[in-house]
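Dear colleague,

Following up on yesterday's call, I've attached the two folding results inline so they're easy to grep. Please treat them as preliminary; we haven't cross-checked anything against experimental data yet. The first protein's sequence and structure tokens come first.
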Amino acid sequence: MTVAEMKKAIENLPDDGIILFERIEDVYFEKHNWKPRREKGFQWHQMQELQIKSLPRGEFHNKAEYPNMTEEILKAYAGMDLNEFEEQYIVANCAITYNKKDLYIMGHY
């Protein structure tokens, strides 16, 4: 779906309508090779900051400021796979309304 198609889908909907997105089952990604678009969002940046602070000479190694920071925690932060924290999106295929108020975005094609 394009931005133009989205604008057309919402042109007659009221401002208090809600937006719903079709639930997509994991099987499409696990068995049917659907690929999400991955983006480094808020959570990824938070985890990256923790990882940087846990590296040698990082902020978390200051025992006076972080007395409860154990070696196990530091290793866990340093060893995190940041890819696991990326946001995942799929392309919306179309938007429809069933009740002339709410917008339903379809994820299936």
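Below is the second protein, in the same order (sequence, then structure):
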Amino acid sequence: MRATILGWSALSGLVLGLMAGLTAFAVLVLGGELAAAVMPRMGTRARVIAAFITLVVVPIVGATLGWLEGRLKLQ
């Protein structure tokens, strides 16, 4: 029972982090397209860094926060 609660909490945090990351990535890409005239060479590098942060780091942080929330539920 305990592992199930922790697992589902972590999974829900991962899904929420992924949705937040996708939204942030979409905003950054649109902003980058609008600012392409300002920094044309930084576009590709910045997009790769933004993709890594928003699609890898944010979901991992979300899963960690979900797991911590599950631990709070069990106390």
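For the second protein, one point worth flagging: The first helix runs from residue 2 to 34.

Best wishes,
A.L.
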